[in-house]
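Everyone, carefully examine this protein record:
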Amino acid sequence: MNDARPQATTTGTLAEILGARLVGPADVPLADIAPLDKATPGALTFIRDQRHASAWNTSNASAALVTEGVRLDESDADRAILYVPDADRALLTLLEAFAEHAAPPPVEPGVDATAQVDPSAAVEGASIGPMCVVGPGCRVAPGAVLVARVTLGPNVSVGAESVLHPGVVVQHGCSVGERCTLHPGVVVGADGFGYLPGPKGAIKIPHLGAVVIEDEAEIGANTCIDRGKLADTRVGRGTKIDNLCQIGHNGDIGEHVIICGCCSIAGSVTIGDGATIAGSVAVSDGVKIGKGATIGARSGVINDVPAGETWLGAPAMPAREAAANYAQFRTLSKDLRQLRKRLRDA
């Protein structure tokens, strides 16, 4: 049973908390939050836009958080609708409240008996969990938590209140800022994939840079961030990287960037502040993606992307151009079928 479930309340109380416009009874009891198709009686669901509105009629939910402007059937006198400016943000407010209520007690500072901490490392005020290894010259700030089996190479720094989950590895000379979260299996600072061809095969290029992860970044499980060849690889403040991503050497990822799961970012890529990279995108080495740009899922980016633009496809191109090309391909396919039919009938 997940303890981070909502406590029982009523639609009227919830409307007051969220400042919602309530349509329907104020005394409907609520004890759960669930998607439209999985909600049971007593559950609150949410509807962000008109595309999902029709599912309200067949849902078993007792109430719904709904974005103002969405048109719903309001005829069911036993159910309630709470209209808010943005259903997603209202839901986030509730989930944060529930998560805070169910949060485990703070981890006490100290070093587990099974951990190995080099005498030259500074870990006072931090929590070093079971089977962690902290190398020489490391600095783990007060309030930081190394949950279990975390390995810090020589001269690594971890900022205050950052949490490194089980199996995280941070290689020599790399730094993690304050209030960061590194999920299980993250590897920071492995060598970049750099080789020169030679008469006896590939010759490995030494990588002398490190990785700098700035404050409030979050790195998903099993993501790898390679160290730079000469300069450091950087992950900017507030950036969120999903699971199973590869960030190549010498990358410069700006602030508040979103990189979704299974992306492959090659070496020396620059990504501007506030950009969004959707799932399974591949970015070629040396490409620059501008501030606030969006790259659609499964795109292959081989050219620079201007700031603020949305690009799609493989190879990626401006979204309007990609949509026009797709429409032309469909028309061409239809024309080819008709041509084949005429040839067969001739």
Observations:
- Residues 111 and 128 are 5 Å apart (CA to CA).
- The chain has three helices and 39 strands.
- The first helix runs from residue 11 to 18.
